[in-house]
Specification:
By secondary structure, the chain is α/β, with parallel strands linked by helices. The chain is 40% helix and 17% strand. Bound molecules: S-adenosylmethionine. This is Methyltransferase domain-containing protein.
């Protein structure tokens, strides 16, 4: 009798969602898949699109694959034709991101992976092409998950980096049980979220982490968008600083300024985290947090 009452009053135990077979899943072609890079005319068209005004992404919203993607994510981030919503352009983005960051982002991912090497269950939020999740898996943790909103990036991630469980889900509503993970990593995700959703994503991180679990966040350096005189900039930190500053000014990042203006230590504290470490170097601003 007593056990019956208990079973009806306790919250249901949430099991992990099924992981789609991304590699064999066929995704709908979008207009950006039809861009041709084998002719001068095609390359000029691509250049016009990249240099033009970013547009709303076109996807079939009646398709369940796109129905739950937050509206703010359906934009041409980084001036990419149709954003992260085509097989072709998202494939190019996975390589292009690392190249444009001059190898610095891969170094940041490696350092983050080492910090969660002792964990068993680790989640990579905004996993993109799965490079950070793969680094984490290689560092030791056996139960590694990656979530992202773009099915095209998830399909590439699953093909390139097996051994990680990939799910399509927004960071602000994660389909996992509370306390499911020992560690969470996020590389260049939070500056892509409007402030309200960044706060919700942090609340979700707090929920799905076990007490004492670590949240590691790498984001673009705040120095990149500060106004500094060119000569003092070059004297202080050289051409690399100038390069990343220029890149930051020209790439479409609709919420990056809001992220830079956010009082992060206050936000982290409100979300139930203790700030263990913070470094801000060009081009990566890094935070290590612990769930209280
Ligand atoms: C700059 S990319 C970084 C990708 C990856 N972390 C890396 O290191 O290469 C940001 C990623 O966040 C994803 N993203 C954007 N909004 C998201 C959200 N609300 N929830 C989960 N992922 C999101 C994008 O689709 C994209 O893959």
């Amino acid at each position: 009798m007593t056990s019956d009452i208990r079973s009806t009053t306790q919250p249901p135990v949430m099991t992990d969602p099924n992981v789609p077979d991304w590699v064999n899943l066929s995704l709908p072609e979008t207009w950006a898949d039809r861009l041709c890079f084998r002719s001068v005319a095609g390359l000029l068209k691509f250049a016009r699109l990249v240099l033009g005004k970013p547009q709303k992404v076109q996807v079939d919203s009646s398709d369940p694959l796109f129905a739950d993607i937050p509206k703010y994510a359906l934009q041409e981030f980084h001036n990419l034709p149709n954003g992260n919503y085509s097989s072709q352009i998202s494939r190019g983005y996975i390589t292009g991101f690392d190249v444009s960051m001059l190898g610095q982002i891969q170094a940041a991912r490696r350092a983050m992976a080492q910090r969660v090497a002792h964990c068993n269950a680790v989640l990579d939020i905004g996993t993109g092409g799965g490079k950070l999740a793969a680094q984490v898996r290689a560092a030791g943790p056996r139960d590694v998950w990656g979530i992202d909103v773009s099915p095209y990036l998830l399909k590439h991630a699953a093909a390139d980096h097996p051994g990680v469980s990939y799910l399509q889900a927004p960071a602000e509503a994660m389909p996992f049980a509370s306390g499911r993970f020992d560690g969470i990593v996020a590389c260049f995700l939070f500056h892509e979220l409007p402030p309200k959703y960044a706060a919700q994503a942090l609340a979700e991180c707090h929920r799905v982490l076990r007490p004492g679990g670590q949240l590691l966040i790498a984001e673009p350096s705040e120095n990149q968008l500060q106004r500094v005189r060119l000569r003092s900039l070059l004297r202080r930190s050289g051409w690399r600083h100038l390069y990343f500053k220029t890149l930051a000014r020209f790439v479409h990042e609709p919420f990056v300024m809001a992220w830079h203006k956010t009082d992060k230590p206050a936000l982290f504290a409100r979300s139930g985290f203790t700030l263990l470490e913070h470094t801000d170097e060009i081009p990566v601003n890094f935070y290590a947090l612990r769930k209280d």
